[in-house]
Amino acid sequence: MSLITVALRESGEEMGHGEARERKQLCARRSCGRGAPFVFVAVLLALALTGLVRPSPMLAAEPLQRLEIVSANGPHVFEVELARSPAEREKGLMFRRYMPKNRGMLFDFNPPEPATMWMENTYIPLDMLFIRADGTVARIESNTEPLSRRVIAAGEPVLGVLELNGGVCDELGIKAGDRVFHPMFKAR
After folding, report:
1. 88 and 157 fall within a common domain
2. The predicted structure's pLDDT at residue 186
3. Is position 122 within any domain?
4. In this structure, are strands 103-113 and 74-83 parallel, antiparallel, or unpaired?
């Protein structure tokens, strides 16, 4: 029983036809408000179970892949994310403020092309390794400047670009001509 009904009964007044209708409408609005979140969640759950709603591909991260670089002083193993689609390549490592030392991002430009990169909206310095289709490093751009719009060109057609934390190549002795091993590259 609502407070309005109780107050009217206690005062001795009878509820008229219009008042009864208002009370029913008020109660209907209140019950709709309480059940709406439940109904919304139930509908989303039903759609998800039937497969009509799928998570966004940007949210469903691909597992990290193993990549090895063999330099003059031995092998160096990294766990990399892949950027294959134009949207993934465009976003790259933008907006990230940290990346573990043994991680990186591998950009797939299949078929090989004279790739160009930049650092817009990228907050961490990077080493960019431009990699030929056979897995050899064509060139390295070390310690790129965060947030720069300067275009960094491969200088020749490459199949991939590997971005690592800035300074890693110098620290590990990775140089142009070293070999990258990953399923994307085929030894020729």
Report:
1. yes
2. 80
3. yes
4. parallel
Query: 113 and 149: one domain?
Result: yes
Our separate counts of H helices and E strands in the chain read 4, 9
Record the tokens describing residue 83, joined without a space. 């950027």
The pTM score is 0.68
Residue 74 belongs to what H/E stretch?
strand 74-83
Residue type, 53: V
Q: HEC profile for 90-156?
A: HHCCCCCCCCCCCEEEEEEEEEEECCEECCCCCCCCEEEEEECCCCEEEEEECCCCCCCCCCEECCC
Cβ neighbourhood burial of 125 (10 Å; 0-12, 13-18, 19+): middle
Report the sign of the C-alpha dihedral through residues 73, 75, 81, 85, in that order. positive
**Measured distance CA(162)–CA(143) in Å, rounded:** 13
Is pLDDT of 54 > 90? no
Return the H-helix or E-strand segment holding 180: strand 179-181
Q: Which of 18-27, 46-55, 87-96, 171-180 has the lowest mean pLDDT?
A: 46-55
Give the number of residues written for the chain.
188
Are residue 13 and residue 70 in the same domain, yes or no?
no
Q: Which residue range forms the structural domain that includes residue 86? A: 65-181
57 occurs within a structural domain: no
* pLDDT 10s digits, 150-166: 999 999 999 999 999 99
